[in-house]
Amino acid sequence: MKIDAGLLATDMDRVAARARELEDAGFDGCFTFEGPHEPFTRLALAAEHSNLEIGTGLAIAFARTPMTVANLAHDLQHFSGGRFWLGLGSQIKPHIEARYSMPWSKPVTRMKEFVRALRAIWACWNENEKLDFRGEFYTHTLMPPIFNPGPARGGAPPIYLGGVGPKMTEAAGEVADGMLLHPFHTERSLKEIMMPSITRGLKTSGRTLANFALCAQVIIVTGRSDAEQENARTMARNQIAFYASTPAYRSVLESEGRSELQPELRQMTKEGRWHEMATKIDSELLDKIAAVGTPKEVAEVLLRRYGAFASRLAFASPFPIDSECAAEIIGELRAGSTDL
User: Under a CB-based contact definition with an 8 Å cutoff, are residues 186 and 289 in contact?
Assistant: First the structure.
């Protein structure tokens, strides 16, 4: 198992120092996500100034075309010498149409086609195959030599798909190299919804979990003092409430018998009551979604939940974790598992 952390450097001039901090703390990799800033550019700086593996955890596929994503991922893979992994997600219809001004339809089918288009483009560049991809949503048939970048060091990067619902999770098992387990999950939803769906997808593609990377993204709530821990709890509740308001993520709440929370939080977003939403996330639900406690306690939770099957473990808190706390958690994780 490899251990990753969010890059969480909003200013470009902080990326190099942040990457070195993560490397010094013992992390194996770092990742970005599609938020206030685009997720690809900062990874080039992280790769240049550290030996960390780098990845998008995740980038919004439908905000771009397969060709633009193929170019970005290919260049980062080549520049990093094979240390890049591409994490992709679909987002939801309002964001794709109203924020990105891009088309939305059949998200699961479109995502599977997006991945297959990427593989066709990379096969052209890396293996000199003729580009002839024709799908329902994407067509890529033109690649003059002047626009072919040639093979990347390390070859095509692995593709990890993010998702919560059973259909997108099954799609990951069918077409991707791995699955980014969204931070909004519980042990029960993972066992009852996600793992069976992944297994169905893998069966369709003739593979097993041995051929598939499971990358668990987990919200970490810890701190050196009671005040630090309480601040972390507040920020984590805000993040969880945002996720829980999304209709597409309702299955997680349903698995815990809390389905009524989703429409309530959704209504609060429509009313602009963003700052009140965190009060709806009680301690019981927080503990089921996040890893909460002292660094030692957090490590114990992570090992119990993910130690038997996760290929990568990502600290996905929406805030930087104290470097000493992070190093202590990593130390406990490595001491507690022979696979780390």
Answer: yes
